[in-house]
Amino acid sequence: MTKHDHCNHTLTRRGLLNASVATGVGLATAPLMFAPVAMAQERQGRILVVLELSGGNDGLNTVVPYGDDAYYRLRPQIGIRKEKLRKLDDHFGLNAGMVGMEKLYKDGKLAIVHGCGYADPSFSHFTSMAYWHTAAPNSGEQYGWVGRLADAMAPKAPANFLVNIGANQSLAVRAKKHVPVVFNNPDNFQREAFFEEKAALGALSDPGKASNPSQRYLLDIAKSATDASALVRKAWSDYRSPIDYGIADLGLRRVAAMISAGLPARLYYTSYANNAFDTHVVQNDLHGRLLTYTSDAISGFLQDMERIGRADDVTVMIFSEFGRRVPENTSLGTDHGAANVMFVAGKKVGGGHYGDLPSLTKLDAGDNLVFTTDFRRVYATMAEGWLGQKATPDLLGGRFKPFEMTA
Predict the structure, then answer these.
(1) Do residues 96 and 84 lie in contact, with contact meaning Cβ atoms separated by under 8 Å?
(2) What is the dihedral angle through the alpha carbons of 132, 68, 105, 285, rounded to the nearest 10 degrees?
(3) I want to staple 323 with a disulfide (CB 3.0 to 4.6 A). Which of 26, 308, 340, 373 is the partner?
(4) Residue 74: CA atoms inside 13 Å, Cβ hemisphere, count?
């Protein structure tokens, strides 16, 4: 057992300095408390960005437990040697390409949550991702957790409150009341039509009087889509930034453009798509590149938020649908696993380690990590701790205690 076996929170240098200033004498480790009204007002302009790493990111080769000998016994070929890591402390190191996220961690702006998962895990990409999208493991749920969060935060469903960057709408943003704005290429975000149809479709932007409620609903949706596409195209055309996001911005540059333009969206969802992290064969080089791209994009995005003066308002949550099996396979890769790490990054995040470490020597029958943190605790932290929206059973399918992670 290491000193990290119970690591609900590591107080960083930034946290210590903040605490000493707050108390005026000595150091305080207790979180600052705010009056409920002041807290609610403070959270009104906050934004949550969710980044999905599809394919099942290998958490053990992302946040490497180099201080645990069992890691190298189980991964004699693909285990990353400690001299090649970006060491965070005497037990963990980040994959070598994660320069941006290493800096975020050392600046106290990156939280690592260990052992995230759920009971009776599915090893199917489609099924497990659906569970994470809906926050409803081992059950069916028609609406996504981000969509339900939007419904709870803004029951009257204002336009453009929920944005999904991607070629297709994610189940995560499917809502009962809100219609998500979904686009991939902002320049092409407009209704597809033949030339002969354009005049008729353009008339929908001024629908006049509808003859019945159903027609009114359809015309309102059409007008909303037309208005949203115009807003998105203008935001993108006006956006200029000197910040380097690296080779793949993972949609985060488009998110930055929308935030910079002042869109009313409070919830953004984007992804590293196409099962990129499904690393079954000769994993290390590919996985290292993927993590480099991811780290660069996240770091660049948060720098961009500083540039436009919105760093205090934006937090990013990063997840994958499952981790990988602990032992390496014969193809020098890893197979579908269970528990994994999650990340939360931002200026208002209390950096460090959260959750209990899963054991590398007490695996389940399939050689997988046994989860120690229900992933919905992190969702609850984002909803309640960051956005000020109560994490009710209606939202997350149960009650989950938020981490004391965000100021």
Answers:
(1) yes
(2) -70
(3) 340
(4) 22
**Which two three-digit tokens encode residue 103?**
């800096």
Q: Please list, in sequence order, all residues whose beta carbon lies within 8 angstroms of the beta carbon of residue 238, skipping any fewer than 6 positions away.
A: 257, 260, 261
Furthest-apart CA atoms within the chain: distance in Å: 74
Of 33, 29, 11, give the one whose Cα is nearest residue 20.
29
Beta strands per DSSP E along 85-234: 86-87, 93-94, 110-117, 162-165, 181-183
Strand spans (E) along 137-185: 162-165, 181-183
Contact by Cβ (8 Å): 338, 374: no
pLDDT averaged per 10 residues, the chain (length 407): 40 35 29 42 86 98 98 98 98 98 98 98 98 96 98 96 97 97 88 59 60 67 75 96 98 98 97 98 98 98 98 98 98 98 98 98 98 98 98 97 96
How far apart are alpha carbons 162 and 99 in whole angstroms? 31
Residues in CB range of 47: below 8 A, 6 or more apart = 259, 265, 266, 267, 268, 310, 313, 314, 315
Q: Rounded distance, CA 344 to CA 371, Å?
A: 18
Could you tell me the two tokens for 312? 């205090």
pTM of the model: 0.87
Q: How far apart are CA 296 and CA 288, in angstroms?
A: 12
Q: Give the chain's domains with CATH numbers.
A: 13-191+225-396 (3.40.720)
Two structure tokens written together for 66: 């180099």
Q: Would the CA dihedral through 240, 233, 159, 316 be positive or negative?
A: negative
Structure tokens at 356: 């209990």
Q: Give CA torsion, residues 395, 354, 18, 100, to 10 deg.
A: -100
**What is the four-CA torsion angle of 387, 393, 395, 400, rounded to 10 degrees?**
50
